Amino acid sequence: MKKSALLFAVAVILLTSCKNDGDGQLVGVKDRPDFLDLMPYGMVYVPAGHYLMGSGDQDVPFAFTHQSKNVTISAFYMDETEITNNEYRQFVYWVRDSVAHYLLGNAEIEEEEKHGGHFVKYQSGENEGELVEPKLINWKEDIPWNSENEEIQAALSPMFLVANSRFYHYSPKMLNISMLNYEYWWCDYRNQIDPSQPSDPNNPNYGASYKEMDQEGNDLGGLFASRPSSFNKGRERFMKNELVNIYPDTLCWVHDFTYSYNEPMTLNYFYHPQFDNYPVVGISWRQAKAFCYWRTHMRNCWLSAHDYAREQEFRLPNEAEWEWAARGDFDMEMFPWGGPYTQNINGCYLLNFKPQRGNYIADGNIYPGIVAHYHPNDFGLYDMSGNVAEWCEDAFDKSATNFTHDLNPQYTYYAKKTDTPEKKRKVIRGGSWKDISYYNTVYAKTFEYQDTCCSYVGFRCVQSYMGRQRGDNLNSASHVY
């Protein structure tokens, strides 16, 4: 009896396993989502290649911060300009609206009409008095900012500061920017996190590395062990939580320059529509990272809703990527346009910087200028020298050239709140409107602290390109632009 049952089970397994939609051939899985093969909006393609990173014959401050090194870089997309005020304002408004939906969603509003994301208190029927919470925010519903309903006004009141009408009669309410906090989770693939440790990034024990133990309690190697199955044991071990206030520091114009009248820039630069297409400044490294994750989330949500495979994440460029993109295929030159001079043959300046020992207006701009005003380099990238310096992913270390790999080199360190200031230094590249020509060369590098907001530092995003390599026909009709 047992033998017959066993034979029956084997027969069932063989019969069910014979099913193959590919006529018994290895054809792969067919029901995969389509990939939307489009160049990201506002980005240009930077081909893969090899170059001599850090090559330059000047070291004006004798800082010894750059050394020559042969490196190879994979292809990627890069924003053709720095992120502008108007683009970053989209991020601010998204966070503002999401906070408003959240506040309204947790308020007891006694009205029949349901606004997007609100709790609705039923007035009749079997569910009378119960609160129903929508699982997702309905972004198609408008937020009733000007509603006369007292419950709605009370729910939204934390988002505003009531100004003294004697001085601000034209704007009795101002946005409470302390409410504009963006929370997100990200995977730190290089480090496993012990789930038993605190998840608060401000906790001194936050981010403790996970040590894998065997049944006898022996350490299996910690971070340096090869754990091919560790990802299957729970992705939460790789997850880190971040909470960042994303509003720019508009007071950076006053902080950066003492005994200088820059108050008009403080009041207008981020707010006024005149500066919509100027590079956003007053952004810390952590805020720039938050913007990248939000941009990734926004794009992938749209792709998922239309049944497309998700794209590669938007991120900050690492230092090697930035320099390769800035050189524009001019391997040994000082500036992106392929020459050692800051002026062309007609005497016109080729970038926005500090010429002639303080004649800021000689290049046409006193402060940051509108993006894409000067000619792009051979890759189609604007303002890789001058205008504003740009955040890179890398932590700053003078000796990083010596210990980083020569294939896509990157030195990463995610500093905690309790770390020393030296560990919070991040690389900035490209120079700015207030810097002399040396700091605007493609090889000069310096740093700012990751929580510092400056009037001369902005950023741009990149996205890895998982396709053709250098030398492919970019004008091929098979690739959609």
What does this structure look like?
It is built from eight helices and 16 strands. It has 481 residues and is an alpha+beta fold. The chain folds into three domains: 43-84 and 252-464, paralog of FGE (formylglycine-generating enzyme) (Alpha-Beta Complex); 90-158, no CATH class; 187-242, no CATH class. The strands form six sheets. Strands 1-4-16-11 form a four-stranded antiparallel sheet. Strands 14-13-12-15 form a four-stranded mixed sheet. The relative contact order is 0.16. Residues 111-135, 220-226 and 468-481 have low confidence and may be disordered.
Q: Can you summarize this structure?
A:
With 481 residues, the protein is α+β, with helices and mostly antiparallel strands. The protein is built from eight helices and 16 strands.
Q: What's the helix and strand layout?
A:
Blueprint: H1 2-17, E1 43-46, E2 49-53, E3 69-73, E4 76-79, H2 85-105, E5 120-121, E6 131-132, H3 150-156, E7 160-162, E8 173-175, E9 181-187, E10 239-245, H4 252-256, H5 263-268, H6 285-305, E11 314-315, H7 319-327, E12 389-395, H8 400-403, E13 425-429, E14 445-449, E15 457-458, E16 462-464
